[in-house]
Amino acid sequence: LGEANRLGGELNAWVRAECAGLMAAGKVVGVVGGDHSVPYGAFQAAAAAHGSFGLLHFDAHSDTRDAYEGFLWSHASIMRNALRDIPQVSRIVQVGIRDYCRQEAEYVAGLGPRARVFHGRELSRRRFMGRHFEETAREIVDALPEKVWVTFDVDGLDPKLCPHTGTPVPGGLEFDEADRILGLVARSGRTILGFDLVEVAPAPGGKDEWDANVGMRLLFRLAAWTLRSRGLAKDR
Fold this sequence. Notes:
Number of helices: 8
Shape: globular
Number of strands: 6
Order of helices and strands: HEHEHEHEHHEHEH
Largest sheet: 6 strands, parallel
Distance between the termini: 50 Å
Oligomer: single chain
Low-confidence stretches: none
């Protein structure tokens, strides 16, 4: 594990340096994984370039384990690492969380107003009670600060849309639901500083292109809404 932690630290430093250079040049940054450990360095670069911001975190998992199985830079620990070590991350809004342990639940609860979680079961309960998704989407957006980084694990979607991702979990968002949330963020006057899309995993041997198809379309929407939020694209 010592070697794994060293290499993880090197990866973070490389991603941070690459993102910092792009941001300094006025570029809009999108990071494509890889697993969900990949964008940590991008969070650091965004903090240095933009100051305080929030994370809009789409995921089936909380990713707030403490050095999961001894691996400090695990994809299961990235949000805990960010919230602990990057003070500019002022708030995290998690959407679709439905697979987590007691320690993670206690950690997130201990963050108080710094965290707002829209669990998968909560989203489902609202649907069952006939609550319009638009109302929920606007509540999610209202929980965000003015500057936002979107961190999107594809397993936040219903696994029928990403069946080959590494840790699929039943439930999750429909594609258009995620897109609606992103669109409302972009139109709300908030600034999307950048984004990452991780854990897209096409079928082995190229036998099924469905995951790649959904991932490509999601990447397009993430880029488009980021540009829209920064005044670099217009609604049609």
